[in-house]
Request: fold
Amino acid sequence: DSGVTQTPKHLITATGQRVTLRCSPRSGDLSVYWYQQSLDQGLQFLIQYYNGEERAKGNILERFSAQQFPDLHSELNLSSLELGDSALYFCASSVGTGEYEQYFGPGTRLTVT
Amino acid sequence: GESVGLHLPTLSVQEGDNSIINCAYSNSASDYFIWYKQESGKGPQFIIDIRSNMDKRQGQRVTVLLNKTVKHLSLQIAATQPGDSAVYFCAENRVMDSSYKLIFGSGTRLLVRP
Reply:
């Protein structure tokens, strides 16, 4: 158990809808990272927050957004969903910023129908 | 359990044998190279890292080799066990747009035969 929690575990929704994925980092970790893992793209970095502020951005679509709250939990919002957004979404955390030793949660499986 | 079902190269080894998983990287500017292990239904888990100015680093039953000349990274697992069955990803810690990002390779699936 990495200490990172993600909810929900599974999510099934229709195209055009909006969903919110939630992540709680390990106790004491200030950074939260979001990744997308799909069949054809592997693990892709989306975005990082550090202590409430956006720190780094990867291949995140404009339809996607994230935030980190004062209690350090984070939410990833996915809107106008398309079939191609179906994937596993992982949250990871680390103590500082830019760290490569990251602790990953169990993921949220999103299925868009 | 959950599985990604990626179309990955697969390495099949006999339990007790040594495994070697290879990875090619593209960016010479990366300062660290890292190996992650992803078991079925779980998120990736950090295994070992190597700094770009080193060519070998050993951990518990694992060794990482870095050949900067040919931009090649390998993970050696000694006395492979059934619990080693997983997908293994190499990753680079790379500066992009003034911030560090973890860039993952495509992964190799390791199957351990009993």
